[in-house]
Specification:
The protein has 146 residues and is mainly alpha-helical. Helix content is 88%, strand content 0%.
């Protein structure tokens, strides 16, 4: 199997992960010391979700434009799933190293409301490269018909 054919997929997944993880890390640096003490963990996390959605949207758009040229929709879905695996690995590593807890503590210690929204956001994160490409293809086919 030709690894050069897959390298845009891997580079795209890594770039997508890095952009979104970086945005989340920066927002977390604001959320934890400044927002959580004022409104609590649940509401601080929920307030951050729309900002993370925007970061996911723009990161996926960028990655699809840069790395998704000539890549099929299935590969873009794989790109999102690979980025999700990187994201979950990084978050679990941070939870264990920084917070000193274990993986089970991290998974069970989440707020049920904001944790549920977080899971939905993870699904959105994984699917967004595919959704971006799907939306771009639909828009370009509509403009060709006009």
């Amino acid at each position: 199997m030709n690894s050069h054919r897959h390298s845009p997929l891997y580079r795209g997944a890594l770039a997508y992960f890095a952009l979104v993880f970086g945005a989340g890390f920066l927002l977390g640096m604001i959320r934890v010391p400044l927002v959580v003490p004022r409104i609590g963990e649940r509401y601080a996390e929920l307030a951050e979700m729309p900002l993370m959605f925007v970061a996911i949207l723009f990161a996926a758009r960028h990655v699809v434009r840069k790395y998704g040229v000539g890549v099929g929709p299935g590969a873009l879905f794989v790109m999102g799933v690979l980025a999700l695996l990187l994201l979950l690995s990084a978050e679990l590593l941070l939870a264990v190293v920084v917070a000193g807890g274990g993986v089970i503590d991290y998974a069970t210690g989440r707020d049920p409301v904001s944790g549920g929204v977080y899971i939905v956001m993870l699904i959105v994160f994984a699917a967004m490269p595919w959704l971006q490409a799907h939306g771009t293809n639909r828009r370009s086919s509509k403009s060709r018909k006009s």
